[in-house]
Amino acid sequence: MSNTIHIEMSNPVWNEVSCMISTTYKNSCIFWIQEVNNKSLEDLFEQNKNYIPFPNIKRLFHGTSEKISNIIIDEDSKPSLNTVSAYGKGVYFSTRYLYSKMYCKAKNNDIAYLRLYYRKS
What we know:
The protein is of the alpha+beta class.
């Protein structure tokens, strides 16, 4: 189970994320940033990272709808949630915000939901 924490603009994470986004989408407007903490996934990562000789850890974006975004927070990313499969079933990520933005599905309020996945140092 995950929990979310609202990131204030004074938090260095806000600046880091907004810089990553503006690199590929200069006219973006960020309304809020939430940090999602999932202890079970973090523990699983910590247990298994030593089995990978040279782990390639990156910050990655994932574009989706509000509904799926909330499911990801509650239940984690699952390939079965994928409804757009350009390269087959799976969960897709990108290092570029603008590419993942194409998969964001805005509702009537024109707010798209984008997840940035990264491991805290």
